[in-house]
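Ticket #4471: structure export looks truncated?
Reporter: QA, pipeline team
Priority: medium

Steps to reproduce: submit the single chain below to the structure queue and open the exported record.
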Amino acid sequence: MTGIDTRAARAADDLTAGGWALPAGAVGTHRFTPKFEAVIAGLQARLTALGGTEGPVWHPPVLSRSLIDRAEYAESFPHLLGSVNAMDEDADGVVLAPAACYPVYPGLADGTVGEQAHFDVAGYCYRHEATSELGRFRTFRMREFVTVGAEEPVTAWRNAWIERGEKLFAELGVAVEVKSATDPFFGPGGRLMRASQLEQDLKYEFVAKVSPEDPGTAIASANCHKDHLGARFAVRLPGGGTAHSACAAFGLERIALALINAHGDDLNDWPALAAALPTPGSPA
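Actual output as written to the record:
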């Protein structure tokens, strides 16, 4: 067993001892208890309030392969993509969703969008992570706020979400470091564009500890995609030109783990704003 595996096993044991999760028998998966799910419900409510929406549209955990191909995800990260096959049939062109935002774009494809359109979405996602580190889930829930439109308002929207994210985590008592990063949305040339992405400040991650020995894990991000997805899905602006897009993404399980790491197993010990999350048996 490697050092990473040992740390992951200890962290998983701590979650079980704290009443948060149970083993699921597969790498990167857990069974979550009502106590854990109450925290998730509270986070969802906080995010809905933060986004000023009625709540997210839940997308299914599977997507058509043609959608993912059009977005160029498979070209960059084939090792993370999971396909869906029946035992006695050929592959039917369905894949597991690697992010919650992709289903937004087919509804806009080959059409015109106004100066700025907004979406609040959520869904179960899958990424074939090779590591067993806590937080590197293979299946997880993602909440995303998405905007599509003209470059200037889209960029301003993303910047506002960086500030919102910092305020949210400060209120929840989770120490985060906001770090510049790179984004898989840019397709097969993304790795070659890494330096350019960093220079343009296209992606910022909110990095926090999800367990005592964790060096830091991205629990949320705020991202500009430029016109990459607009071009891939032929989304146009009213005056001509290709639409830009941006998203603010929140990994629900990772944020819950960061809260647990910061405040412990007893919800009564959590600070006032974090403790306002519902407890098991209370309304979500």
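Status: closed, not a bug. The export was complete when the record was re-opened. Leaving a note from the reviewer for reference: The two ends are 40 Å apart (CA to CA).
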